[in-house]
Write a structure and sequence with these properties.
This protein is 0% helix and 35% strand. It is built from no helices and 23 strands. The strands form four sheets. Strands 4-5-6-7-8-9-10-11-12 form a nine-stranded antiparallel sheet, with no helix packed on it.
Length: 328
């Protein structure tokens, strides 16, 4: 092989740069500060082109790449690419995508996930926007939303729509077309009201309940004394008996004398006395008690004959009336 060693190549005129119509092959290193504008690129082997504009085109790159990329297409392989802003029309990822900051969907109408979406810090939905569950977006089975003042849960049921939510500090369960029928109303710090056809029928209070209309029961109705349809009987033996507060509404079945005490009962209380013996039984008014015989208005102790029955009715804690059969 022959060698030519020169410092400078010039054209035939001795001034301009030479030209190589048939090309030139270099097996060593070529150093150039620029390429003529008429030369679009230099071929390096079969896979690399060095362009006059500073662009390198290759089928593959090995090693780290640095600098600024203005255009990238058909990038393959497994290198890590660190960039500032990525602008693209579409993107497909076969593996995981990690976002270190905030992922903002300002211009995205729908986000379609074929798996499970996990929101570790919760989900925020602005006022008047809805969280829709089931069926389709246009006709969901369930909606959750806030009007900005009140929160609601809504499910359509073909004329029997169900609404559950708050309004002015009150909690409602409503039904009917558009939820226009109130079923339950919970007042903040107050009553719970049950409705029939938008009309309140039962309301709770700190003392019990109030019912508007009749109360129908198929079974027994009881209170702290028992079945309200019955007069509960309390049996006393042969010892004298002092009436007590729990005797109100009951029939005392006794063969011994009965004492009516003072400051035990209140207005409206009543107790029935039944003499179970064949002999007389005394009904004594206790100290401080005024007991009127309704037959003649007399006061004092009464006598109830054998098998007789009488009722004592109180108008206050120390005044009562007594009436009955066999009473003297």
């Amino acid at each position: 092989m022959s060698e030519i060693r020169v410092n400078t190549f010039r054209a035939e005129d001795g001034i301009s740069a030479p030209s190589f119509p048939n090309g030139i092959q270099v097996t060593g290193v070529v150093t150039a500060t620029s390429l003529a504008s008429s030369v679009p690129h230099l071929n390096v082997g079969n896979n690399i082109q060095l362009g006059a504009a500073g662009v390198a085109t290759a089928t593959s790159f090995v090693g780290p790449l640095t600098g600024t990329a203005s255009l990238a297409s058909n990038l393959t392989g497994t290198p890590n690419i660190t960039v500032g802003t990525v602008i693209a029309t579409t993107g497909t990822f076969s593996g995981n995508v990690s976002i270190g900051g905030t992922l903002t969907y300002e211009d995205v109408v729908n986000v379609d996930s074929v798996g499970i979406v996990t929101a570790r810090e919760g989900v925020f939905i602005p006022d008047t926007k809805e969280l829709k569950l089931g069926n389709t977006a246009g006709s969901p089975d369930l909606k959750l939303y806030s009007t900005g003042t009140n929160g609601w849960v809504y499910t359509p049921q073909s004329g029997a729509d169900l609404y559950m939510g708050t309004d002015a500090g009150e909690v409602y369960i409503q039904t009917g077309t558009g939820g226009n029928d109130v079923g339950v109303k919970v007042n903040s710090g107050g009553s719970v009201d049950l409705y029939f056809n938008n009309s309140p029928k039962l309301s709770t209070s700190n003392t019990g309940i109030s019912v508007t209309g009749a109360v129908a029961a198929t079974g027994s109705i009881t209170d702290d004394k028992g079945d309200v349809r019955k007069i509960i009987m309390k049996t006393n033996g042969t010892n004298n008996y002092n009436l007590i507060l729990s005797d109100v509404g009951k029939a005392i079945h006794s063969s011994a004398d009965v004492v009516v005490p003072n400051s035990v009962f209140s207005a409206g209380d009543a107790v029935t006395l039944i003499n179970s013996a064949g002999s007389n039984m005394a009904v004594q008014q206790g100290s401080g008690v005024t007991m009127y015989n309704s037959a003649d208005g007399a006061t004092g102790n009464r006598t109830l004959s054998g098998k007789g029955m009488a009722t004592v009715y109180f108008v206050d804690a120390s005044t009562c009336y007594i009436t009955g059969s066999g009473l003297t």
